[in-house]
Specification:
The chain folds into three domains: about 5-180, NAD(P)-binding Rossmann-like Domain (Rossmann fold, 3-Layer(aba) Sandwich), CATH 3.40.50; about 190-295, N-(1-d-carboxylethyl)-l-norvaline Dehydrogenase, domain 2 (Orthogonal Bundle), CATH 1.10.1040.50; about 310-395, N-(1-d-carboxylethyl)-l-norvaline Dehydrogenase, domain 2 (Orthogonal Bundle), CATH 1.10.1040. It contains 17 helices and eight strands. The chain has helices at about 15-25, 35-55, 60-70, 95-105, 125, 160-175, 190-205, 210-220, 225-235, 235-250, 260-265, 290-295, 310-325, 330-340, 350-355, 360-370, 380-385; strands at about 5-10, 30, 70-75, 85-90, 115, 135-140, 150-155, 175-180. Strands 3-2-1-4-5-6-7-8 form an eight-stranded mixed β-sheet. Helix 5 links the parallel strand 5 (about 115) and strand 6. Helix 1 crosses helix 2, helix 13 (about 310-325) packs across helix 16 (about 360-370) and helix 15 (about 350-355) packs across helix 16 (about 360-370). Bound molecules: 3-hydroxybutanoyl-coenzyme A. The site of 3-hydroxybutanoyl-coenzyme A has 21 residues, from helix 2, helix 7, helix 9 and helix 14.
Length: about 400
């Protein structure tokens, strides 16, 4: 099916970013939210993204106007009778999303694709409430949507192959890299990113290193931004929500660091409200130091810090996901580079494991387990590979062939 017109529901940062991406590809899009104020804010966000490009000389003001003419704001569904795809980017609540799609089914044409940009809610659960689950799919963009190349395409149990193909082609037409991911909590990228981010928060609350030291160690590794800066960009509240979903699915190894809840309670939600791990405005809020002191009383004392403490659990979760068939080794690496900026020269977590040696990954995980606990328990596949001589580049075979 060719997509001539799209709609995005939810005009927050992600929704507005997605609407910008759609218009940039030349397609008309409706940006809908519940009230005019939210819609206006969303439209202003889209304009700001284009204005930045104009300011940098990457497009002319009249080109910007042409792109802006493609996006129309809405507070109701009156323009939805001819949309080919709806991308939902609203509050993370299954029943709210179900109600929305039930309403959309009554309004949209027979063939409309219903895509959810949920970070980690099950697509099959959302689809269970609608008449045409074959048309429902996950289409997960990454923040900032105009920049990050990845779109995770997540079929639910009832999604048809035709819908998957349509969304893959549509994502390509948006100049994105679509990666098909098997449905699981956190899908692929959040599932691998959260253990990495959470470990940064744990190291900080233990006093193993300062926020700056942790962020610097990871930017020196080659990540585009430090993990605590990234937490602030994604939002502490969103991160807590994703962490809880992961904990529910994967158990103790995915327990969220207490400092995250302390920050949320102190209304330090990240860049969006002026303070998170870092402070972005003058508004007085409980300081990070006070919050660390509070949670530190209940947690272990410092046991050292290195970038490996964050990278190894990411590799480990990549291997567990590979074992489960969530995605291929190739796709896991592409997704982490395109979705999080994992350094290109390291080729993604699994190529990186092959570079340093799968046996080295195993011994690093064993030692982290010894020092910090069972959340570092090595994936069975890693042990099997080492026993079988699949050590990575040095033995000519690992996650890839050399
Ligand atoms: N919106 C639009 N464009 C933006 C932007 C934004 N919010 N932030 C940056 N950009 C653009 C800039 O305009 C610039 O464009 P140009 O190349 O045309 O000039 C380009 O991106 C690079 O920006 P900068 O030079 O200012 O800064 P950096 O090179 O440091 O890049 C970054 C910024 C792209 C955010 C980079 O730091 C990065 O890749 N960070 C990692 C982000 C990440 O991991 N995202 C995934 C989060 S997880 C998630 O979203 C899942 C969800 O479910 C929780």
């Amino acid at each position: 099916m060719y997509i001539y017109k799209a709609a995005v529901i939810g005009a927050g940062t992600m929704g507005a970013g997605i609407a910008q991406v759609v218009t940039y590809s030349g397609l008309p899009v409706i940006l809908k939210d519940v009230n005019q104020e939210a819609v206006d804010r969303g439209l202003a966000t889209v304009r700001k993204i284009y204005q930045n490009r104009v300011d940098k000389g990457k497009m002319t003001a009249s080109e910007m106007d042409q792109k802006m003419a493609l996006v129309s704001g809405a507070t109701d569904f009156s323009g939805f009778s001819d949309v080919d795809i709806v991308i939902e980017a609203i509050y993370e609540d299954v029943s709210v999303k179900q109600k929305l799609f039930q309403e959309l089914e009554k309004i949209c044409p027979e063939g409309t694709i219903f895509a959810s940009n949920t970070s980690s809610l099950p697509i099959s659960a959302i689809a269970s409430a609608i008449q045409k689950p074959d048309k429902m799919i996950g289409m997960h963009f990454f923040n900032p949507a105009p920049v990050m190349k990845l779109v995770e395409v997540i079929p639910g149990l009832g999604t048809s192959e035709e819908t998957i193909d349509d969304v893959v082609l549509f994502s390509e037409s948006l100049r994105k890299i679509p990666i098909r991911v098997q449905e699981c909590a956190g899908f692929l990228v959040n599932r691998l990113l959260m253990p990495y981010l959470n470990e940064a928060a744990l190291a900080l609350q233990e006093g193993a290193a300062s926020a700056k030291e942790i962020d610097t160690a990871l930017t020196e590794f080659g990540m585009p931004m430090g993990p605590l800066t990234l937490f602030d960009m994604v939002g502490i509240d969103v991160s807590v929500k994703v962490s809880d979903i992961l904990h529910d699915a994967y158990g103790p190894r995915a327990t969220a660091a207490e400092i995250l809840r302390a920050l949320e309670k102190a209304n330090r939600l990240g860049v969006k409200n002026g303070a998170g791990f870092y402070t972005y405005n003058e508004e007085p809020k409980e300081s990070l130091e006070t919050l660390i002191e509070k949670v530190n009383a209940a947690s272990a004392s410092s046991k050292g810090f290195s970038a490996n403490r964050l990278i190894m659990p990411m590799i480990n979760e990549a291997v567990i996901s590979l074992q489960e068939g969530v995605a291929s080794a190739e796709d896991i690496d592409i997704a982490m580079m395109a979705g999080t900026g994992f350094p290109q020269d390291k080729g993604g977590p699994l190529h990186y494991a092959d570079q340093i040696g799968v046996d080295v990954v195993l011994s690093e995980l064993e030692s982290l387990k010894e020092n910090h606990g069972d959340r570092f328990w090595p994936a069975p596949m890693i042990k099997r590979m080492v026993q079988g001589g699949y050590l990575g580049k040095k033995s000519g075979k690992g996650f890839f062939q050399y």
